[in-house]
Amino acid sequence: MTDGNKGLRRRDVLKGTGAAGILATAGCVDLGGGGDSGPYQIGMVDSQTGSLSAFGERNQRGRELALSAVNDIGIGGRELSISVQDSQSQQQTGVSAAQQLVNQQEVPFLIGAVGSGVSLAIYQSVVQSTDVVQLSQNSTSPQLTDYPGLLRMSPTGRTQSTALADIITEDGGESVAITWINNDYGSGIKDAFVDAYDGEVVYNSSHDQGQSSYSNVVSQMANTDADSWLFITYQPEFTTMTQEAYSSGVNEQATWYGADSVQGSDVLANTPDGSLEGMKVVVPSAALDQDNYQSFASEFESEYDRSPTAWAAYSYDCVVTAAITIQAADEFTGSALGDVVRDVTRPEGEEVTSFEAASEILSDGGSATDVDYQGVSGPIDFDENGDPVAYLQILSVQDHEYESTGFVTGE
Amino acid sequence: MLASLVATWSGVVAGALAPGIAQGGLDYLPQLLNYLANGLVFSAIIVLGGIGLSLVYSIADFANFAHGDTMTIGAYAGLVTLGAVGTAGPTLFALPLGFYAALLAGIAVAAVVAVATHYLIYEPLDTDSIGLLITSIGVAFVYRALIQIQFGTGYTVYDVPTLRPIPWIEDLTGVTLTEHEVAIVLVASVLVAALHVVLQYTTLGRTMRATADNEALAKVSGIRTERVITSMWVIGAGLAGAGGVFLGLYNQLSPRMGFNLLLVVFAAVILGGIGSVYGAMLGGVVIGMVNRLTPVLTDFGIPIEPAYANAIAFVIMVLVLLVRPTGIAGEGVS
Known about the structure:
Chain A is α/β, with parallel strands linked by helices. Chain A is built from 13 helices and 14 strands. Chain A has helices at 2-26, 53-73, 91-104, 116-127, 157-170, 184-196, 215-222, 235-247, 265-269, 291-304, 310-328, 334-340, 355-363, and strands spanning 40-46, 80-86, 109-111, 133-136, 150-152, 175-181, 200-207, 228-232, 255-258, 280-284, 350-352, 371-373, 390-398, 401-410. In chain A, the strands form three sheets. Chain A has a seven-stranded mixed beta sheet, with helices on both faces. Chain A starts with a helix and ends with a strand. Residues 1-7 and 23-34 of chain A have low confidence and may be disordered. Chain B is an all-alpha fold. At the A-B interface, helix 1, helix 2, strand 7, helix 7 and helix 8 of A face helix 2, helix 5, helix 11, helix 12 and helix 13 of B.
């Protein structure tokens, strides 16, 4: 055991050295981003690998589009550059990535992370004691609301939990079995759901991330008489559960419901046809009816040959918000950016739907309060807790495809 | 006979653990059998991983942290082979012949990669066991990075349909096992039995055991220990490759699949007695079963959730080590 422990610590050291090595060899990273010339350097911690890598890919596409939109115009003649580090969807790695960005590269603005647990861990151990602005691109755990200094672009899962509770009740579900992933995201969504749901919760148990099998969880759920099963977990974990439920012949025993993070094309591709029939999932949605979303979507489609997800839209808006904030702030420091980051998204100013429009107002002498950035993901409007306004879509699986069955807005 | 044994055993469990189950007694039996069946399948995969880890420890004398990723390599080699061979033709246990080709490819590629790593990295390094341990962590990262470069960071599945449970077993016992799971357990048993024969009844086995006991003494007795070490990598990594393919069949493939399982495999090997192949097999079964049987605790009203399955497996490992510091089958420390 002692050996094992030593091994793990050494491994972390190696990880750190490895990451540093990659950076050093990449050679193109400008470590002095805070100077008076050269690009403005901000940081991003993303899930390039691990359970949430699907989100990392979506984020990357959104980030690239946003970066080119911003750099076509420039921020007062300078470019924006983002140093991206992988969190491996794990808290420990995420924290080391953030430490590298904040302490060594000294970025004043940090976009990160995807997983709520990772975002919180970064906030508590790296960002909280500094004046760096942290903006999570994809975290939806209700717990983030308790940390006003930690902003996020994706809406809180509390609205998602309320929506799920309403849908299950509407569908006539009287008893529900819940399995949730044992982290801040899972427990946050689960707690909010249990608060909101009036029926009986007959099974309420957690499971661990990244396990090779969840047959014990599935088997336990099947042993209850719940008429509804609720999955609050990540895509690979949910895929395993679906396969195991199908292999045990219990997938039709109850109606399935899922939180946002169990939805994805990989899930459909890797589960048997018909195994998810009728399942309903609530996902945060972009403002699909807005013009700027539609132009974002068509640009996205021509670039990547696929439709964007809300997650790419959040990442896009994170980058654009960061760029507008940098231009609106007096100087490129954490405290100056922190003073204006909320103002540029709030309704006091003139509504703008692109970086270009915001940039014009600011170049004409406008201040942060004169701008109200309307993101491609929605109106944003960061509140005092750092949460945006929520906009949710209900998806239902029909013939092994997701069909939209309506929208819900949350507070 | 078997049914009555299980019934007696479950009676003991019920009596010992909680009175609450008494009313649900017989109704609970199929559920318990299901956990045991799941445990058996999971154990089979852990055993395949554990043997190699134990062999490397006893013969090459270091804890190989790249072993989990060797399993991943086997799984992905199988994926490529299955893609090339296709799934047409006759099937055995509802698995196309192409899958068995994939299994062989997984074994072969994992073995080749491990042997190459040994000759290119471990041997020229000529360092002590701590040095090798740390090197193997680096090797694990390289393996995983190569797989991520080639196959992406997402997850995928083998092109064989997910099956429904075998009806007659389900009707008879309430246990839901698929033909794939039966195949995993059977093939793993065959491989383990073959290893037993090799270790006990062949010259290679005798020289391997001799090298594991005392490499210097084996060398002066005329055993070509270098050749033994190569065979050890072939056997250990080959079994890991098979374990990887089965892990992929069991649910899905992802670049972290082997690494995620590694700690559990380590627990199995240490529990069994580090360096003992038979201990690794036994440890694998115990850890696999404990891992899958965790829900029994909540079923009996003990508030420890399945999320803590690995923690419980490790607690049991520590308890066994407190009583028997050398592990279940480990030899005494002189």
